[in-house]
Amino acid sequence: MPTPRFAARLTIVSASMFFAAAALAHPELLSSSPQHQSQAPAPAAITLKFSETLTPQFSSANLVMTGMPGMPGHGEMKVGASVSGASDGKTLVITPAARLMPGSYRVDWRAVSADTHPITGKISFQVQ
After folding, report:
1. pTM value?
2. Which domains does the chain have, with CATH numbers?
3. What pLDDT was estimated at residue 44?
């Protein structure tokens, strides 16, 4: 039978491991606007909502036009946009420098939370 001292140490070690694992959780993309693989009018801004508070100085996104109607074989073209964090701390806001033309787009994002481990992903959408 374990001594009370051993049991207390075991409890502390178990609790430490639980909280350390929770601290190593990584942000997950919960939603985007426009939604992934949607078709809609040109958005004034694209938002990416994450499960955790982000570290804005290490999080980023690139907006890329991947196709243009009537122009088969059109190569990918990076679109000028600014990226900022919203006041909730969990949302990246990508604001195009100019109104988006009809075509297909992709957002390549990188999100970093307090644990400083980056995750990356992509969403795509079409502008009518």
Report:
1. 0.78
2. 27-127 (2.60.40.1220)
3. 98
